[in-house]
Amino acid sequence: MLSIQVPRSILYNIEPIGIETGLVESLSSYLTRLSYEHNINVSHLVNKIVIPEMNKDYLERSSKYGGNSFYEGAKTINGYTDNSTEMVYILGKLTSRIDLTSLTLFKLKNLVPLRNLLKETFSWCPECIKNWKDSHKSIYYPLVWYIKPIKICFEHKCYLLEKCPRCFRKIDILRRQMIPGYCPNCFNLLIQDQVIKEINNQEWEWHSFVYLNIESLIGLNSSKLFAKENISKQLSYINHYLFSDNICIFAEFLSIPKSTLRAWIKLENTPTLEGLLKVCFKLDTTIMDFLTKSLQNMTISHLNENQKTIKEKVIRRKLDLVAIENFLKEGLICDPPISMTAAARILNRDKRVLYLNFPVYCKQISKRYRDYINLESIQRIEKLKKEIKIAFYYLANQGIYPSSGKIQTKTKKKGLLKERILQEYWKDLLAQNNLYRGKGRSSNDE
Known about the structure:
The chain is mainly α.
C-alpha cells in the first residue's frame, strides 16, 4: 500500500485566529502564542529557533550577549516592511503555514505610508481579554489593536488601554516573557476592575467610523490590493465635480492645508491612513467606497444638498486691479514695511495671484520688508553686544571672572550667549583682556 508522508514542521502548525476577518490576529501575537503553545518563553523561541533562520550576525550577537535589537525592530513586525516580510517567511517555514501574510498590513503597502501607521507600544481591550479568559477561548491580540488611529473597541464601546492597570507601565510590542493576556512587566492579567470610561457621542462618531473602516480593510482578501493612485484620481475628480477645480475651497472643506491637498492630488505625497479616513469622514463615505466606486455611486448626501451653495462659493471673485494696485503702492511707503504675506492676507487674495498680476510691486514690497528685517536684526545684535560689554567690564572691574553664566545673570537674559555671533563677541572680549581660558574651563566657571 502506497503511503504519502507529509513533511513535519519544526513548530506546531497552529492556526491563526480570525483569518480574513477584521479581527485577524497580528503576527506578533502569533509569535507569542507559538511560544506559549510550546511552553517556552518568547526569548527562547526567538534566540534558539527564529534568529538562526535569519542569518544576521548582529542579531546573533545580540541574542548571545543579551542585546535588544530584535525586540526594538519588532515595532514594525505587523506592518509591511522587510522586517515583517522576513518574519512571515521564517514563521511560515517553521510552521508550514502559507497564510501568515494576512497577519500583517501587507495589503496596505501600496495604499498608505508607514508614517503614523503603527503604534509604538501595545494597547488592548480589557473586556475582550476578560471574555476570552472566562469562556476558555484562546487569548490573542488582533492586528487592529496595533494600528495608530484605533483608540477604541467597537464591540465593548470602550477605549483601549495603553498602560497596565496594576503596574501602570506601558508594554512593548514584543517582550521576552510575553504571555497572551498578561502584562510582561508584572504578570497580572490585563483586565481592569474599575468602571470603564464612557465615550461621548461626538468622539464615538469619529472613533467608530475609524474602527469600522480599518476593520473592513484588514478583513479584505489579501489578493484585493489597492494603489495610492486611486486616492489621487478620486480627489481630483471630486475637486472638479463638486468644487469646480477650486482647491482652496476643497481644502477648506476638508480642514487641511491646500498645499497638502495639492500634493495628494499630484501624487507628490500620500495621505496617512488617518488623513485618508478624515477625508472619507468629511465626504460621508466609507474608505472602501472611496477607493472603489465612482463619485456618482458614493453616498455623499450632505454634499449633494449643499452642492449649489458650494458652487456659488467657488465662483471666483473678479479682481479689482485698480484697488489692488493702489494698496500695493501704499505698501511701498508704509512704515513699518509690510510683508507680501501680510499684504495678501489683508487683500484676502492668494499671494501667487498678486505676483502674477503685479510682479514689480510685489518684488519691491518683498525686498523692502526683507531689508527692514535684516536691519532690525543688525540693530538687535548691536544692542545686545553693548549690554554684554557693559556687564563684562562691570564684572571684570569687580574682580569677578566674566563667565557666560555671570554675563547672563547680570543682563538678566537667560541663554543670551547661545547665539554664535554673541558668543564669539564675548570670547573676543576675553581674548582682548587676556582672560580667555580656552576649553579647559567651563564658560560658567566663577
